[in-house]
Design brief:
Rossmann fold; alpha/beta; 332 residues; 8-stranded mixed β-sheet; 13 helices; binds S-adenosylmethionine
Length: 332
């Protein structure tokens, strides 16, 4: 039995098998199971630390790596602003920002699809002697919380792995109190990573991986773990044409070769999903030097920051729910 609050219906349980004749429901159900299994077996960021999982060194190393690679992540959240606020984090991962929200005086609820992420986050809090946080397991498409409950919903790198992102954003809107804020990071479609690296470079690389010379070359050029490259090679062997399918390229080249689902959004498509919010601002961030083999690591920080702000992979959305209810809302 889970030690966390588990929201019903549990994914993979009987409650979602209501329509055996509807193949779309079955496909959706199967995909959700795959997504959950994937994240259960590979908790986000956990590979960035060599220390044993759940030790103080583990959290220290992964936070060091996280905030070194994502230089603007902490400053753009402004944790102090949310002291005393009710905060929900969707997809807590290893709890890095969760710890910072609590240290800044926020009342924090960690929410995740997986037991693994909640357990890693809970252990982090226990080691740091941070009390009062809540841990809830469930699916972001059906948030198990009352309406108008939170001052902030924060979600970093999660909603592009949820099949129905638009529905999840409606859920975020519902659980926010009037005037409450959402801070969400989604993968950015009009980015160098999507338009150049995935569309072109990764396609070529996939073809290279079909022979051992190509595999050795790929290791030298991209410095990726051999195990990961071999898994890509294996997938290519089973589906030789899969490098032509953009959705498969996106899934396999964002969070690991076995990742079942990733999506990428333009500012326009993200804006559409957030249209029920009153104020919506967006910012593009994050540049990975490995996207430019050979010269990426030689670029001055200012050039990197400039590339990140125009062609970065992370689209941050800062949105606020309307303060007032209008007559038209009442009627609907
Ligand atoms: C890429 S990790 C991001 C974790 C963390 N926010 C970070 O930035 O490191 C994705 C996380 O979202 C969770 N997740 C995926 N689908 C979800 C869903 N439908 N509902 C809630 N959490 C979900 C996964 O279990 C995983 O912990």
């Amino acid at each position: 039995m889970s030690k966390f609050v588990v929201a019903a219906p549990a994914i993979g349980g009987t409650a979602q098998k209501r329509s055996p004749h509807c193949s779309r429901t079955r496909v959706g159900h199967e995909l959700k199971k795959q997504i959950r299994n994937f994240w259960e077996n590979s908790p986000c960021d956990s590979g960035f630390s060599k220390a044993p999982m759940g030790t103080p060194a583990f959290y220290r190393e992964l936070d060091e790596h996280r905030y070194k690679s994502h230089r603007r992540l902490q400053s753009c959240i402004e944790f102090q602003r949310f002291a005393g606020s009710q905060i929900l984090e969707i997809g807590c991962g290893c709890g890095s920002e969760g710890e910072r929200f609590v240290r800044a005086g926020g009342h924090y609820t960690a929410f995740d699809l997986t037991y693994a992420a909640l357990s890693i986050t809970e252990t982090r809090f226990r080691l740091a002697k941070l009390r009062g946080a809540h841990f809830v397991q469930g699916d972001a498409e059906d948030l198990p919380f009352a309406s108008n409950r939170f001052d902030l919903v924060y979600s970093h790198g999660v909603l592009h792995h949820v099949p129905n992102t638009a529905k999840t954003i409606l859920e975020i809107h519902r659980v926010l109190r009037p005037g409450g804020r959402a801070i969400v990071m989604l993968y950015h479609r009009n980015s160098f990573n999507y338009q150049v690296n995935l569309r072109l470079v990764r396609r070529v690389r996939s073809r290279m991986l079909t022979n051992s010379l190509g595999l050795t070359l790929a290791r030298r050029i991209w410095h990726e773990p051999e195990e990961e490259l071999r898994r890509h090679a294996e997938l290519m062997k089973h589906e030789p044409d899969s490098h032509l399918d953009m959705q498969k390229l996106l899934n396999r080249n964002t969070d690991g070769p076995d990742n079942p689902l990733s999506q990428a959004f333009s500012k326009f498509s993200a804006g559409e999903m957030f249209r029920q919010f009153s104020k919506v601002e967006m910012e593009v961030m994050f540049w990975n030097p490995n996207w430019l083999p050979g010269i990426g690591r030689l670029l001055p920080r200012t050039v990197e920051d400039c590339l990140a702000s125009v062609w970065g992979w992370h689209l941050w959305i800062f949105a606020q729910k309307h303060h007032l209810r209008f007559a038209s809302d009442e009627a609907s």
